[in-house]
Amino acid sequence: MKDLMRYTSILLIFVLASCGGGDSAPPAEEAQEPAPAEEGMAAPAMDLPEGVTAAMVAEGETVFTGAGICFTCHLEGGVGGPLAPDLTDDVWLNIDGSYESIVQNIMTGVPEPVEHPGLMLPKGGAPITDEQVNAVAAYVWTLSNGS
Ligand code: HEC
Q1: How far apart are CA 97 and CA 7, in angstroms?
Q2: Burial group, residue 32, by CB count within 10 angstroms (0-12, 13-18, 19+)
Q3: Ligand 1 centre from 139 Cα, in Å?
Q4: Environment class of 81 (CB within 10 Å of its CB; exposed 0-12, middle 13-18, buried 19+)
Q5: Ligand 1: which of 72, 79, 95, 110 to mutate, most ligand atoms within 8 Å of CB?
Q6: Of 3, 7, 54, 61, whose CB count within 10 A is highest?
């Protein structure tokens, strides 16, 4: 009985640890860098690509950090890590960075990564719908287009 309790608490610690222990998420939100005044006029809101809505971007963020498991490789906020590239800069390894190319990339995955050791499966290997792919692509697009 003692053993069982000990085992249970060890298991509990493990479960807590692998969940990140609650609210210990790093403050990795995109730094609010002021957009360079390159466009002449002040843009009140970002010009989203055609067919993309703010609601899709918002849903896409939840897909990125949830059902789509994108953050497990690209990390929270898409800043990149050892397993997957930064999605917040304007350097693209496989695509031109347009919304369509991001959708396409997520649909097909990256069977032969340019710089990373492991591949990306279609849809990141997650059981997400095409609609969720469009949404998460919208979110990814905003990461490198100043939000
Ligand atoms: C198992 C790890 C993994 C997961 C999960 C994953 N990716 Fe990737 N992703 C990669 C790798 C590896 C590449 C290609 C890197 C290379 O070419 O060196 C990549 C590339 C990309 C690119 C193109 C980047 C570029 O510079 O060309 C996008 C966009 C992208 N992923 C979005 C996503 C989204 C959205 C999700 C979630 C639906 C996701 N990824 C899930 C590993 C992952």
Answers
A1: 49
A2: exposed
A3: 14
A4: middle
A5: 110
A6: 61
At 8-66, the pLDDT tens digits run 554 444 444 444 444 555 555 555 555 555 444 554 567 999 999 999 999 999 999 99
Q: How many CB atoms lie within 10 A of CB 30?
A: 13
Chain-centroid distance of CA 69 in Å reads: 8
In angstroms, rounded to a whole number, what is the distance separating the alpha carbons of residues 7 and 5?
Answer: 5
Our CA angle for 47, 70, 138, nearest 5°, is 15
